[in-house]
Amino acid sequence: MSEYFDVVIVGGGMVGGALAALLGQAGKRVAVLETALATELEPNSPYELRVSALSRASEHILRKVKVWEGIVKRRSAPYESMVVWDSTGSGEIRFDAADLGETDLGHIIENRVIQLALQERLLELDAVKVFSPVQFKNASYTDKGLSVELSTGQILETALLVGADGAKSAVRDWAAIDIKVTDYAQQGLVCVVQTELPHQWTAWQRFMPTGPLAFLPLPDPQCCSIVWTLPADQADAYVLQAESLFKQHLAQALDYRLGQVLSVSERAAFPLKGRHAAQYCAERVVLVGDAAHTIHPLAGQGVNLGLKDVAELAEQLLQDSQHWASFKVLRRYERARKADNALTLHSMEGFSLLFGNNMPVWQLLRNQGLSLVNQMSWVKGQLARHALGVG
Ligand SMILES: Cc1cc2nc3c(=O)[nH]c(=O)nc-3n(C[C@H](O)[C@H](O)[C@H](O)COP(=O)(O)OP(=O)(O)OC[C@H]3O[C@@H](n4cnc5c(N)ncnc54)[C@H](O)[C@@H]3O)c2cc1C
Fold first, then answer.
1. Phi and psi dihedrals of 318, rounded to 5?
2. Which of 15, 303, 308 to mutate to test the pocket of ligand 1 (most atoms within 8 A of CB)?
3. Domain membership of residue 223 as a residue range
4. In 167-258, which residue ranges form alpha helices assigned H by DSSP?
5. What global pTM score does this model have?
6. What is the pLDDT of residues 81-110, one digit of tens each?
């Protein structure tokens, strides 16, 4: 006998895990299919390469599903300020939480820590069952909904299939939903560094013609996670470069704001592509997070958008439970989220073009623009509130 679930979520990452918790704590029977669960951190284990800058809006969602405590008890770094400047001039903008009457502008958290806290919460929810290690294999429509086939051969019956399975979503492919892909011909180089000077609980971002470089504060006051956007061949070269040389390049690229780079972890580079699904839903199928959209990481908004997706989807589904999984409800979610995601996607592409342009007129505009906004406290406040996810 196959088991029945109100929803089968493919992907137990940050986005799928949060959706499972939202629906599970509302009493819906949820199955989560996950290829590989995160394993618990050892005491003093090195920082993970993949981190997320979570906004206040994301914090609220994670508090609602009771996973924030699980994050804080492991490790996270609140950041109180953000400094953005241009490498080709003197333009600079600085945001401070204190100016907004806030304690911080967000938190830098290792992706694995978010996943661990979510997994812990899902175990507490009787309505949620996690299947792992397992993969989504196939699905077929039935009279009452869908039969979902797992790589183990198990069959689950459900009313709704959710693709929370990331950028290369198998659910999206199965549902034959088109996706527009823009190759930025760039890679995001990530690593963890120890710096000579403390990071001052500040997120540092310098825009260079080749792409932005971000130093994001970690719980240790002299450790940062870096995301460096580079042309693909340059990123590959930096990954392989001798450590001493790479440390010099990195310190110089950040204008020595944190002094020398004292140590550097292993390095990895991810190809950067913008993706946006033509639809977020089909009959009894819906996409959330990276399965629906991936954006340029320069503003660190990927997970934040995914969490906004799941908050909206859960609200639409739960407030119209009688029509659970109806196309009308799924379309409501799509309408509510697609425009916001498209706007963020295109804004990030625009920023990337503006800051990657070497023509003197653009350099002047950038520098004067940054300095001008820095002096306009109201505009600056609005920008900061938007980044915080409360504006
Ligand atoms: C270099 C870089 C830096 C970034 N920095 C930031 C940042 O600072 N802030 C931010 O908000 N975002 C950032 N992002 C984006 C962020 O990492 C993604 O938006 C986020 O991981 C999306 O979460 P997700 O749960 O939708 O997908 P994923 O994290 O990809 O999770 C998908 C899950 O589904 C599972 N899965 C996949 N296929 C199957 C299958 N067939 N069956 C079962 N399970 C499956 C996977 O194992 C995985 O656990 C960055 C991205 C890059 C490339």
1. -75, -30
2. 303
3. 79-105+185-272
4. 170-174, 232-240, 243-253
5. 0.92
6. 999 898 877 778 898 999 889 999 999 999
